[in-house]
């Protein structure tokens, strides 16, 4: 296929350079956006009297037919083409003749690429947002069934204080709501139309940039033609959003992996979301969760690639920017794959309430509640803290827990202890009393669940 820019050159491009320069292998996924952008551009040209309406109709019909042929497989993408933009334009011209050659009036590939990428990533962001909302819904649905399922909360991966499984899951749901907010913010900033910036300096034609921006669902045209073609903030910002979301998915996956182990056994994954060993017949491995954890590194790497690629580029467009697509496409694909796999994996897992409670009964996670018991009887907290620390040491020496420690041992440490201490340190009571806003008490978690559902409904409606 002859290059559109071949008139300036006396030689054919070296075949190896052609392959190196080509981007059609990965930018072919933007064919739909390229066609939509071209139809809007042609309509604007005709409206402004820059091309005849007859040519606009031919262009529109030709592009719509190319769209249909690509979707049904009647038209195969020519991988020898430089990029999807040149392929579609060449195909259009071969079908409708000179009218097709008028399409690129007052347009450059620079603003065309920037437009297609914004359109494509806007769509991807919406799809990822929908998936993340579904994941949050799944977590909340599970949480609503476990507001009284007591488990140990951890710091430093050491048992710390009693919480509920619902409280733990809602923490991840809160992260996901923030992920959705970040995506919404990114789309808002992304939603400026670069079309009409041309190569870098606008055009001498009397174009209507507001028309094309509105037609394509943008809030406004980009305010500066140099920035319009060279801005990739929206790509880097989306990659950053996806990196943060991937960290959340990875942390969730890490806990799933821990909880599946025999050392915890808090949950068991459905057989459809685990794998076995080639040599050890007893194994049931959380490989899917491990892959989710691993892919977070890949998405973070894509983000770093984009930042490093852009950091030294002068205005306006530079060919380095072609490297933006593989990185952001990979990040989008990876996150979508992870979230869409994680949703059913969580929905089908079995929760072992007994093992959670058993773990909670060890590790002295009611020690703070024991100290609070003394504080409520008038002892300063730091004094109470020291008393209970001494009791924990006694329990450790004798192989006891605070629940099984005899009252006389309590009395030796502090005369304020009485029989009601055992009720005060019972795990379910410890949880029930932690009713501060955002805490693990069932009523507090139920309020959080209501707030999360309302927040997600609001996000869904945007």
What report would you give on this structure?
This protein folds into three domains: 6-105, Fumarase C, Chain B, domain 1; 117-358, Fumarase C, Chain A, domain 2 (Up-down Bundle), CATH 1.20.200.10; 367-425, Fumarase/aspartase (C-terminal domain) (Ribonucleotide Reductase Protein R1, domain 1, Orthogonal Bundle). The mean pLDDT is 95. The protein is built from 20 helices and six strands. The chain is elongated, with a radius of gyration of 30 Å. The two termini are 44 Å apart. A two-stranded antiparallel sheet has the order 1-2. The protein has a two-stranded parallel sheet with strand order 3-4. Strands 5-6 form a two-stranded antiparallel sheet. The chain has helices at 15-21, 24-27, 31-47, 53-72, 84-96, 98-101, 109-143, 165-190, 209-215, 225-230, 233-260, 287-310, 324-347, 353-360, 367-375, 381-398, 407-413, 421-424, 427-433, 442-461; strands at residues 150-155, 158-164, 192-193, 220-221, 267-268, 350-351. Helices cover 62% and strands 5% of the residues. Helix 11 runs antiparallel to helix 12 (287-310). It is mainly alpha-helical and 462 residues long.
Widest sheet, order of strands: 1-2
> What's the order of the H and E elements?
HHHHHHHEEHEHEHHEHHEHHHHHHH
Architecture of the largest domain, according to CATH?
Up-down Bundle
Total number of helical segments?
20
């Amino acid at each position: 296929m002859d290059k559109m820019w071949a008139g300036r050159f006396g030689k054919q491009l070296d075949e190896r350079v052609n392959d190196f320069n080509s981007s059609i292998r990965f930018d072919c996924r933007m064919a739909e956006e390229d066609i939509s952008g071209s139809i809007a551009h042609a309509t604007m040209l005709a409206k402004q009297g820059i091309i005849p309406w007859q040519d606009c109709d031919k262009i529109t019909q030709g592009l719509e037919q190319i769209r249909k042929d690509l979707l049904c497989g009647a038209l195969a993408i020519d991988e020898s083409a430089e990029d999807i933009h040149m392929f579609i334009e060449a195909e259009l011209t071969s079908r409708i003749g000179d009218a097709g050659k008028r399409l690129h009036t007052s347009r450059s590939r620079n603003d065309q690429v920037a437009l297609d990428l914004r359109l494509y990533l806007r769509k991807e962001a919406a799809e990822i947002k929908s998936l993340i909302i579904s994941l949050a819904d799944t977590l909340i649905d599970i949480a609503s069934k476990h507001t009284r399922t007591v488990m140990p909360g951890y710091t430093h991966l050491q048992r710390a204080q009693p919480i509920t499984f619902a409280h733990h899951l809602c923490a991840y749901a809160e992260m996901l709501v923030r992920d959705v907010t970040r995506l919404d913010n990114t789309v808002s900033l992304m939603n400026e139309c670069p079309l009409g910036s041309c190569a870098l300096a606008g055009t001498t034609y009397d174009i209507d940039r507001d028309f094309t921006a509105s037609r394509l669902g943008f809030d406004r045209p980009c305010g500066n033609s140099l920035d319009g073609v060279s801005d990739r903030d929206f790509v880097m910002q989306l990659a950053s959003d996806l990196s943060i979301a991937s960290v959340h998915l990875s942390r969730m996956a890490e806990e799933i992996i821990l909880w599946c182990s025999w050392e915890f056994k808090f949950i068991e994954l459905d057989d459809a979301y685990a794998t076995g060993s080639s040599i050890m017949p007893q194994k049931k491995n959380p490989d899917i969760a491990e892959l989710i954890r691993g892919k977070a590194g890949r998405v973070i790497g894509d983000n770093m690639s984009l930042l490093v690629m852009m950091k030294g580029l002068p205005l306006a467009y530079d060919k380095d920017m072609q490297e933006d697509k593989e990185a952001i496409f990979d990040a989008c694909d990876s996150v979508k794959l992870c979230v869409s796999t994680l949703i059913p994996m969580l929905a089908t897992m079995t929760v072992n309430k007994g093992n959670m409670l058993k773990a909670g009964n060890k590790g002295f996670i009611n020690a703070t509640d024991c100290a609070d018991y003394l504080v409520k009887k008038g002892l300063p907290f730091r004094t109470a803290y020291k008393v209970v620390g001494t009791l924990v040491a006694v329990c450790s020496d004798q192989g006891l827990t605070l629940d099984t420690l005899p009252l006389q041992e309590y009395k030796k440490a502090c005369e304020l202890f009485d029989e009601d201490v055992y009720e005060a340190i019972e795990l379910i009571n410890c949880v029930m009393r932690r009713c501060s806003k955002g805490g693990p008490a069932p009523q507090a978690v139920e309020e959080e669940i209501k707030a999360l559902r309302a927040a997600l409904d609001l996000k869904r409606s945007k």
